[in-house]
Amino acid sequence: MTGGAELAARLSAAADDGALAALGFRNDDRDDVKLALAAALADRERMAEIQLLADRLRVAIGRIDRETDAFDVPAAASDWRGVGVTPMLALLAVADDVRAFHRSRGVPPEISNRSLSDLGQQAWVHRRTYGTFGVHTYAWLVTAFSGNLYWLGRLQFNLVHRSDGWVLSTHIPESGPLTPEAVDDSFREASAFFAAHFPDYPTELFHCGSWLLDPQLAQVLKPDSNMVRFQQRWNLEEEVGPGDADAIFFVFRRRGDVDRSTLPRDTTLQRAILDKIDAGGHWALWSGTTPQAPFRAVHA
Q1: For residues 113 and 18, what is the distance between their CA atoms, to the nearest angstrom?
Q2: N or C terminus: which one in the chain shows less Cβ crowding within 10 Å?
Q3: Which residues are registered as beta bridge partners of 209?
Q4: What is the value of pTM for the model shown?
Q5: Number of continuous H segments (helices) and E segments (strands) in the chain
Q6: What is the C-alpha to C-alpha distance for residues 66 and 59, in angstroms, rounded to an integer?
Q7: Which pairing describes strands 203-210 and 235-242: parallel, antiparallel, or unpaired?
């Protein structure tokens, strides 16, 4: 990005309702984004911070193997108009650069837009979690805006390098039932997509690291539940860390020191999560893999 005039032009263009809808912003968040954009455009110091972050983001685009986090957020930006709003505007500023990288890889526009719509999705998650406008998952969003996260059907995928080679890391956005059919479709689409658009990063395995892979879930949910059937797909590798915070966040959309007595117990899953923690037990994060071969198209 060459200078302040270009940044201002990009941020002005980002205030368009259609552009914000394409990035996944819902109505309430669109209004707040437009207010933040107007405030930033009138604030020279804020524009300098956005420029700094946008420049760092641009360097990361296409760096599938990047090791550093592009979001070293200036301290002054931490609570301006809400948590993470300054880096959110930097993401808006580089969206077209990410789309250009997608085009260079032959990624269809509809997949490009769906993948970048995780920005609006994360703003919605933030509002559900804290009741305010912002985004607290900006470190995660760097993956999408580096060109290494693709929303394919029900699931999201990105390339990750491990000691045994490249794998497709699998992520589960909050976007509907996790049915076996939807997962199968996503696995098939991902296998074909990455083979076509990232052939220089060959993969044989899907990988997942999540509290959803905790074997204890199968002890408290019905065997035919979507979550248990999802878990049973994976060859578990190891327990990788504590999972209580993730379980509380993904099931109840709460962060930090949560008063569990205020949380709903309307579903079997909600009750199972809380009952175990209240009884002194804990959930864990597990990692696992499953082969791609069954989901690859066979050509005569």
Answers
A1: 12
A2: C
A3: 287
A4: 0.91
A5: 13, 6
A6: 10
A7: unpaired
